[in-house]
Amino acid sequence: RRMFPTIRVSFSGVDPEAKYIVLMDIVPVDNKRYRYAYHRSSWLVAGKADPPLPARLYVHPDSPFTGEQLLKQMVSFEKVKLTNNELDQHGHIILNSMHKYQPRVHIIKKKDHTASLLNLKSEEFRTFVFPETVFTAVTAYQNQLITKLKIDSNPFAKGFRDSSRLTDIERESVESLIQKHSYARSPIRTYGGEDDLGDDSQATQSRGSAFTTSDNLSLSSWVSSST
Amino acid sequence: RRMFPTIRVSFSGVDPEAKYIVLMDIVPVDNKRYRYAYHRSSWLVAGKADPPLPARLYVHPDSPFTGEQLLKQMVSFEKVKLTNNELDQHGHIILNSMHKYQPRVHIIKKKDHTASLLNLKSEEFRTFVFPETVFTAVTAYQNQLITKLKIDSNPFAKGFRDSSRLTDIERESVESLIQKHSYARSPIRTYGGEDDLGDDSQATQSRGSAFTTSDNLSLSSWVSSST
DNA sequence: TACTTTTCACCTAGGTGCGAAGAT
DNA sequence: ATCTTCGCACCTAGGTGAAAAGTA
User: Fold this and answer.
1) In chain B, which residues have their Cβ closer than 8 Å to the Cβ of A115?
2) Which CATH class is domain A8-159?
3) Mainly localized where (chains A, B) (predicted)?
4) All structural domains of chain B with their residue ranges
5) Model-level pTM greater than 0.70?
6) Which end of chain A, N or C, is more open, meaning fewer C-beta atoms within 10 Å of its C-beta?
7) Number of Cβ pairs closer than 8 Å across A and B?
């Protein structure tokens, strides 16, 4: 299924004349498996992680971008799809349910016509990580507040809104949940790649939605079958 | 609205390692305006053409293709949209209703990194024309057979099928209409560009559907508002 | 018990011809 | 009289959570 809410990034400092590939991948945060403690509304460690799954890259479908486009438009990853099916044939990103993940955004500057996507030797690249987007993958929501919050926010879930509007009190609870799980996270943080773009390029996550500062309560996404 | 039936082309003789841009445009066939003679089931000249409209190119959204892709897949133009609104802001192809048109498919070989789409000096290109795809643009169908044929063939018109299934006799009439309007058209014809690709590349229109040999009875497409 | 899978009603998003109304 | 525009019911295509059924 689609990852929701959507990760959106803006770029600055890119060369308007150059071409760029923009990618996303999602990497494990630790080597643990989690379970949800309902009475405490929090995630607890529940043992070692399951075996790692095939790593996949999501190449943004609008790639290649011109630097000019990147400076003008926001890049939206709304079509990223997640699955827990390790044999997935659709190219979706494969995750282990009940594990904690960190989405990453990569940008590759195309230097020449030797266009192979994975031949990075001749291309400069950078990786950006927004710690506030860490999440725990699930097949079903573990917290009714999150369910309601998503029903309120995702246009495709409109059919459930009448029966589950968030009350003001619930909205406060959501805020405190986010607060509780987002300690020690700076609003913007950049992890440099080994290479450098040679300029001050950076990626800034959109803050247009309450969800762009998500927590690790499956707020960002969840996993389901890929059928 | 979308052009229907869809123009689909296959390419051969391209360089698997090269990159190609594939385009469509639609050019006037003559300088005439037409009207439809219901009693004769044919188009008649009805005066001089209206003033020409801004020419637009439809760059196939999957461009750039690798030559390898072109050899494997068919290129489908199902998303081409037509309008009669000369102030159209959506980038659709602008046509005069009741005028006769010829779609053209262009392929450009990208030679280097000087990537500007319209700077063809450094790029080789070829243009392909399939005379059987000539059509007259309309805002409303002029012939009930064509209406039925399209209802039968376009999945989005399924809701009208019960009331207008084509009878066997009507199917024969369609065939004779097509026959009547397709005299002197070879099944495949190629107009070379000024430049040459330096190989035996060619484009072949798909013959997967009865409609790939269309006539000039608004069978291929029609024009409507761009709202 | 604690997840996971499947199915389904209900949405978004947008492509159809129809028919009434509008325009010239 | 002849075309064009607009609103609409009816589709395709596919993204939702609920709930029932499955798994271990």
Assistant:
1) 19
2) mainly beta
3) nucleus
4) 8-159
5) yes
6) C
7) 5
